[in-house]
Design goal:
It contains eight helices and two strands. It has one domain: Hexokinase, domain 1 (3-Layer(aba) Sandwich). By secondary structure, the chain is mainly alpha-helical. Keywords: ATP-binding, Glycolysis, Kinase, Nucleotide-binding, Transferase.
């Protein structure tokens, strides 16, 4: 019999279902816990379900914030942030990393995601957007579009390989 103290007893699918449970008595959470902990388990009390849902939401928010921080770091490093914040003569200055913002296109950029967390976990997409809004500001963040990639991770690896050979 599994317990919540066992690492990995709740899968990403479980976490998503718990976070997105909006039923008044958290019945989806009760079903997920019963499934994850074993069919013989009695239903977890409502207060326990609330705590589990709160912890799952904190884990998902932390993950979204960490991903948004990584995206922000890449956007700063490539000069996109500086180029999109700059106006007029400021647009051709250099970033903190010494890169010229002339190379960076201003305007919109797209970040492609591959996988079930982004495609099947709607609340996570909202958390990611909120975290990026917080880190970049809503005006700049609105220029970053999220897209689901249907090409798989092999396509991403090919793009990285081509980019590495051209630099």
């Amino acid at each position: 019999m599994a317990t919540l103290a066992v690492k990995g007893v709740l899968t990403t699918a479980h976490l998503a279902a718990i976070v997105e449970d909006r039923s008044p008595r958290l019945t989806v959470t009760a079903q997920v816990l019963s499934e994850a902990l074993g069919a013989g388990q009695k239903l977890a009390p409502w207060s326990s379900r609330r705590v589990v849902r709160c912890v799952c939401e904190m884990v998902a928010r932390r993950s979204a914030l960490m991903l948004a921080l990584g995206l922000r770091t890449l956007l700063i490093h490539t000069g996109w942030v500086a180029a999109n914040r700059a106006t007029g003569e400021e647009a051709s200055q250099t970033t903190a990393t010494g890169r010229s913002t002339d190379r960076c296109s201003t305007g919109y950029t797209t970040v492609a995601f591959d996988g079930g967390v982004y495609s099947k976990f709607g609340a996570y997409r909202d958390m990611l957007r909120a975290a990026l809004d917080h880190l970049l500001g809503p005006e700049l963040s609105s220029k970053v579009h999220f897209e689901l990639s249907h090409d798989g991770s092999c396509f991403g690896a090919a793009v990285l390989a081509v980019a590495a050979t051209k630099s």
